[in-house]
Amino acid sequence: MDDTTKVLLRAIRGEAVPHTPVWFMRQAGRSLPEYRAVRAGIGMLDSCRRPDLVTEITLQPVRRHKVDAAILFSDIVVPLQAAGIDLDIVAGTGPVVAHPVSTMADVEAIRPLEPEAVGFVAEGVRQLQRELGTTALIGFAGAPFTLASYLVEGGPSKHHVKTKALMYGAPDVWNALCARLAEITLTFLRVQAEAGVDAVQLFDSWAGALSEADYRKYVLPHSAAVLGNLPEGLPRIHFGVGTAELLTAMGEAGTDVVGVDWRTPLDVAASRVPGKAVQGNLDPCVLFAPWEVVEQEAMRVLAEGAKAPGHIFNLGHGVPPETDPEVLTRLVDLIHHAR
Ligand code: 1CP
């Protein structure tokens, strides 16, 4: 399929588009009854290792909502497990790591990712590209900081206290950890690129916990090592939550699109990342408001996004699990017919 017909890719390049492309972070799974049906009795990480299931779950929101992009069904910890780290995804909690990282010896025990160890992801991507037509396929990975936060905390955390303690207290251990994670992430994204994803998103979901100075010192070089070493021409999206003060630096890490949460209007965000496309920023909680409010907020996001060189409509973070899927379908239709 000629990629000029993929509206998402045209928007990323800042070309004219027939409509603003739209997809939703965390659109696969969670809010869909058909997802819960196919996942019944299958653990999260087990389901990620089954290409037929990956393909089915990735396609579910495309069929239902007619979004312009599919996001591969996987998780940011999949490459870590494939590299030999003992972890699981616990329902209702998230990733849980058996032996949290705190010393240089812990870091040195982390092995590189062998591309064959994520062959199931490549197979899923190949299956999907046979089905997707003009819908773009977005691959993804976690950025070094966000991955490190799970490995150091041992699981989800609110304030990332242990992570920051390691970063400030043992910068050599921190940098060695992030360098290893950058390598694993790069390998994971290259596998997806070789198998045929149209674009990739690097999720640095929790980078907004840092000041700009600390982000530039402790994180940006590692994210840049990922984003700067991807295959030539592969479109890149770089996203985090609470990153208003980091948008310029996240843009400098090397990306074509900067993802924006709901706190920063897209025209303001665009002024912080000159020349780049922006993605976001509808507050996911707006999905629970009366339709008139959803419509009004979506039109505001469209108007502000139109001031950037390119705009991809999305939420400011993931689809909440309680979301009524009908609202998402209606929202896609609204965006597609807005002009
Ligand atoms: O659309 C999709 O859902 C695609 C697949 C996808 C993606 C893009 C999943 C499946 N996870 C992710 C990325 C991901 N995973 C991120 C970055 C995006 C974001 O910020 O939301 C993060 C931080 C994770 C880590 C993770 N995995 C969490 C968050 C924990 C925390 O710190 O609060 C959770 C709950 C998971 C488990 C998970 N991943 C995906 C699903 C469907 C689930 C739920 C597991 C289940 O159904 O049992």
Automatic annotation (TrEMBL):
Record's subunit section:
Homodimer.
Task: Report the sequence similarity comment from the record.
Answer: Belongs to the uroporphyrinogen decarboxylase family.
- Protein origin, superkingdom: Bacteria
Q: Which InterPro entries match?
A: UROD/MetE-like_sf, Uroporphyrinogen_deCO2ase_HemE, Uroporphyrinogen_deCOase
Q: In which pathway does it act?
A: Porphyrin-containing compound metabolism; protoporphyrin-IX biosynthesis; coproporphyrinogen-III from 5-aminolevulinate: step 4/4
All copies of domain Uroporphyrinogen decarboxylase (URO-D), residue ranges: 21-30, 138-154
Reaction it catalyzes: uroporphyrinogen III + 4 H(+) = coproporphyrinogen III + 4 CO2
Output the CDD domains linked to this UniProt entry: URO-D
Does the record carry ATP-binding as a key word?
no
Which keywords label this protein? Cytoplasm, Decarboxylase, Lyase, Porphyrin biosynthesis
Location, primary (coarse class): cytoplasm
Residues at the site labelled Transition state stabilizer: D75
Q: What NCBIfam families does UniProt report for this protein, alphabetically? A: hemE
Q: Which GO molecular-function terms appear in the entry?
A: uroporphyrinogen decarboxylase activity
Q: Which organism is it from?
A: Dactylosporangium fulvum
Q: What is this protein called?
A: Uroporphyrinogen decarboxylase
Q: What class of enzyme is it?
A: lyase
- Record's keyword annotation contains Cytoplasm: yes
Query: What role does this protein play?
Result: Catalyzes the decarboxylation of four acetate groups of uroporphyrinogen-III to yield coproporphyrinogen-III.
Q: What is its EC number?
A: 4.1.1.37
